[in-house]
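Hi,

Apologies if this is the wrong queue. I'm a grad student, and the batch job for Intraflagellar transport protein 140 like from Dissostichus eleginoides produced an output file that my downstream script rejects. I'm not sure whether the problem is my script or the file. Here is the sequence I used:
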Amino acid sequence: MARMCVKTRRLDVARVCLGNMGNGRAAKALREVETEPEPEAQVAMLAIQLGMLEDAEKLFNCCQRYDLLNNFYQASGQWKLALETAESHDRIHLRTTYYNHAKYLESVGNKTLALTYYEKSDTHRVEVPRMLQDDTSSLEIYVNKMKDKNIYKWWAQYLESQSDMDSALRFYERAQDYLSLVRVHCYMGNIQKASEIANDTGDRAASYHLARHYEGHEDIKQAVHFYTRAQAYNNAIRLCKENSLDDQLMNLALLSNAEDMMEAACYYEEKETHMDRAVALYHKAGYVSKALELAFATQQFSALQLIAEDLNEYSDPALLARCSDFFITHSQYEKAVELLVAAKKYHQAWSCV
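Support response: The file is valid. Your script probably expects a header line. Output copied below for reference.
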């Protein structure tokens, strides 16, 4: 009766039959395919559970569910048909089909053909080294043949794990993995070579690793240099502050963000040296009021003129008035008038509110 339901496509009757048969697996499979929009696809799944494979194949073709047909062929070991279906009608799953076929071929010991299908599925960079890891001679031949940076890197890591550092370096170089090159050279004590690589390539990760190495060996000058090359300005600034490298600190702070600029300005202010730098950094970081206060307190008149260029009607009226008085005192009346007009606009805006 259940088999007849496939012919008549009566799924409702089929559920009753499966229940009476006690075929829980088939009943469960039938419930799972109820979400499929095509009735033929649902009936095809019933046919599979009942061993009616030819009927299932015809039904999948009838409703053009080539994705399910592809899965059907794979599950039944009909790989030639699965590949043909994927290549002709189910290209969205083509790479997955190639991958599944490669896994099957590997499982039956056909590594040569499996390799081809891993390449077709574009998973060869990971899967082929894994598959050949116990056959190092074949793997080395494959690595050299493929000329792929990712595979070079994998092979270099393997060689490094085997303590073959010289060979590892050659393949890291082919992979253009500058971080690993610098890391291995540092490990081997070839610091000069590591520095040349970091300087020549400008690789930020390599520069950062080298900077940490130099800092760990208390070579502060080189550490600052490579932190700067890595654009890790906060690390470079930290070292400059800790080692009183005041000149380098200013340049680094100007390259960095507002927070680092502000911290560098605080450093100069607390040391009570290079107060002009503190004013400039507060200003650049956007702390205009603080920059003005410090400029007034330390008589930084040229800095005051520069900062005043950024003042407008939205600035603190007290600062506007104070700057205006400064410019009047120094006979710069035109600038004083500009600031007073700005202050007037501020008051007008607030009176409207």
